[in-house]
Amino acid sequence: MRRTTIAISLLVGTAVTAPMAAETTRWVERTKVDIRAGRGSFYEIVDTVLKGEQVEILKTEDKWASVRTSRAKTGWVYEAALKATPVQPGTSDFLKAAPGDISTSRTAASQGAKGVYAQGYAKEKGYDYGIVTWVETHQPDGAQIEAFLKDPGDKTGGAR
Known about the structure:
22% strand, SH3 type barrels, alpha+beta
């Protein structure tokens, strides 16, 4: 009788924990997704996962999921990039070799959108966004970059 009770308890315990474990696993639905140090596209990329890879959900906040990747890296990803059921890995190798900044996320898809979000964030935090505008308007042109690459000691950028 005691063995039967123990066996039933183990079966019930396994049946209860199996769905809980399945609920914390998600699969990447997009071609390539950046895992970031914080909840936002302006945070540093800590890992990149590809379509079909599994991640473990640690917690969720405001449509963002804190995850652990198969490489034991932890960070944040927008929940919409994940699916609760297995996803077939992508067939294209195009983005796999691309550097970490190339992404298919909605926010990274538009440089303009990133600028709008960054300006809003800076304003909300009380930061001076003017330096970004100054840097953007004072970028060297192609000829100046070429001149610098030919002669890094030339501080005029080829303009003499």
